[in-house]
């Protein structure tokens, strides 16, 4: 049984994405997986169909709402892949982007546009904090410099396609001539010409793979998965539309991957960390230092701090991408450390604490000040609580355990 994929995952968008974000993602993926760009690739064909199906649903507010509420089951009663539900302008503008002028149709001429490309770059969390300039390397199909994109051997010229007569399209009829369908010429693939002697550099394709490296400035506060769009760094229009590459290029989409950190977890602009403290510091309160992402931060622990309690250090998190001067918080989870080994003196002090606290250390009253415990003259279990001599019990424990 085939697994039904989440439409949002297919298009790579969040469930909160608006219509423009969904359309933009679909355009990029449709151009990436289109069969003309991936001839003979079964996976590309499958992905292309999945993207079209997902966009068909998510671009329709009514069907999207039903899908959000009931999932795929909510769409069972509606016909699948009904393009009549899609906005007509969206359909033709998308396919004009993918195929060029010929697919724009309906008497409207649009400039041919090249395919978009996608690559990724990994940075550390510290680099996301300050921003940095990185080099992005990628490969793209570009106009062959030997034949200037014609695909023909230098000194020769392409010949008019005998199948379509140079039109780039052929017409097919069916049902006794009741309908007529125009499709791309299978012989010249829409170019209108064929090559008698192929160029040795591009083997008649008119395009060759070229490596390119760009310097990209990544701003402070960038988050994992966010995408940079570099206009005009994609591929030129396909050779069947513009042999010499004249026309607007596609764009390059750079996906930013922020590597996981060994001490911090990111939540939006906030950073989350854990700090281990001795139980005496947690009980008595202390001023402790926290290793922040860009320096040491001081945190005041109140007396009676509990294991797992969290505190915020304002402005010690990550900068906001849109407002770099505004930073998130550093959220510190306190882990109270109980010593595993005690010497005789430490055990004696803990027993003294237990005796002054009713025979056991009650977690619910651990935040009570030592002076309050010592001042209590009430008997418990036949024993009177006396005032501690010299230092308080907690101070003795802290000096003994922390000082070890």
Protein structure class: alpha+beta
Characterize the largest beta sheet: strand count, sense, and whether it forms a barrel. Answer: 4 strands, mixed
Q: How many alpha or pi helices?
A: 11
Overall tally of structural domains: 4
Shape: elongated
Return the CATH topology of the largest domain.
HSP40/DNAj peptide-binding domain
Tell me what the structure shows.
- By secondary structure, the chain is α+β, with helices and mostly antiparallel strands.
- The chain folds into 4 domains: 1-110, Orthogonal Bundle (Helix Hairpins); 111-158 and 195-260, HSP40/DNAj peptide-binding domain; 265-337, HSP40/DNAj peptide-binding domain, CATH 2.60.260; 344-402, no CATH class.
- The chain contains 11 helices and 17 strands.
- The strands form 7 sheets. It has a 4-stranded mixed sheet. A 3-stranded mixed sheet has the order 1-9-8. Strands 2-7 form a two-stranded antiparallel sheet.
- The longest helix has 17 residues, at 42-58.
- Mean pLDDT is 79; it is low at 79-110 and 361-390.
